[in-house]
Design goal:
Blueprint lengths: L8 E3 L16 E4 L2 E4 L8 H14 L3 E6 L4 H12 L5 E5 L16 H12 L6 E4 L7 H10 L4 E4 L3 E4 L1 E2 L4 E2 L5 E5 L4 H16 L9 E4 L5 H9 L4 E3 L3 H4 L3 H16 L13
Parallel strand pairs: 1-4, 4-5, 5-6, 6-7, 7-12, 12-13
Antiparallel strand pairs: 2-3, 3-11, 8-11, 9-10
Helix pairs in contact: 2-3, 3-4, 4-5, 6-8
Length: 276
């Protein structure tokens, strides 16, 4: 559709050690200013990804990121061991998927469970780890800091919010798992708040303990990206925005460059975190 080499990085679908078929029933449901999804981590498994999808991703030009999920600490560790032997430069540790009944977001809800997942992966790989957290955590900032203590090299703030949709004709929940993940512009102000608060907490750490924060949640335009950068994000991820507009990411890159030229910014660092 467009020249992917213009992007900074591309991230795989959530990968688990074993292949997964994903959730049954309806998986995508539109809602005002957003989209709900209940995919359920459908994926071919880490070994298949390494053999088939990863080589193609690496040819495209942007930094290739492997998103790793799991149900148990053992499956996280085994998946990370396999990825550690590959050329993929970055692992995004997914402890935040809202659409699975085992594992997923359960690992990111508390400091203790998040730390155990990060430590399990950190102990078997020397690759940089960006931990993708869940906004469902009772105290997202504390969980984020706990992940840094456990060896996270970056934080992704954050995965989708949970919601419910009901089919008024049948009187039943739309999704087989009842709850589903909500993304898109509807969640952006909440996602921005989370980035703002986490970056403030990270900035209070000693300089050698600070890690980059990647902003995620409802980013669909260059103005959205600027907001997240001004809230302290070092980079942004776009997911649902590409369903709204397949060229959203290119528009964000072009708009960001034009904004920086108009404002006289030579680099993103010159205005990153200026709103804090």
């Amino acid at each position: 559709v467009f020249d992917i080499s213009r992007l900074g990085g591309i991230c795989s679908k959530g990968l688990t050690l074993e292949p997964r078929a994903g959730n049954e029933g309806i998986r995508i449901w539109e809602t005002p200013a957003g989209v709900m999804n209940s995919i359920g981590l459908q994926n071919p498994g880490v070994p298949h990804f390494i053999q088939h999808e990863m080589p193609e991703m690496l040819k495209l030009g942007p930094v290739a990121i492997a998103n790793l999920s799991g149900s148990t600490l053992e499956s996280y560790a085994e998946g990370a061991k396999l990825l550690d032997k590959t050329p993929v430069p970055l692992i995004e540790l997914n402890i935040s998927c809202p659409n699975v009944t085992k594992g997923g977001a359960a690992w990111g809800l508390t400091c203790q469970t998040a730390q155990s997942a990060v430590k399990a992966v950190r102990s078997v790989t020397s690759k940089p780890i960006a931990v993708k957290l869940t906004p469902a955590a009772a105290n997202l900032t504390e969980v984020a800091l706990a992940c840094i203590d456990s060896g996270a090299d970056a934080l992704v703030i954050a995965n989708s919010f949970q919601g419910i949709a009901i089919d008024i004709e049948s009187g039943r929940p739309v999704f087989a798992n009842v709850k589903a993940g909500l993304g898109g512009p509807a969640v952006r102000p909440m996602a921005l708040k989370n980035v703002y608060e986490v970056v403030k907490a990270v900035n209070e750490l000693p300089e050698n303990k600070r890690v980059p924060v990647i902003g995620s949640g409802g980013i669909a335009t260059w103005q959205d990206a600027v907001e997240f950068i001004m809230a302290g994000a070092s980079a942004v991820e776009v997911g649902s925005g590409t369903f709204i507009n397949p060229f959203a990411m290119l528009n964000i890159i072009d708009g960001l460059k034009a904004f920086m030229m108009r404002k006289g910014y030579a680099s993103i660092e010159e205005f990153r975190g200026c709103a804090l």
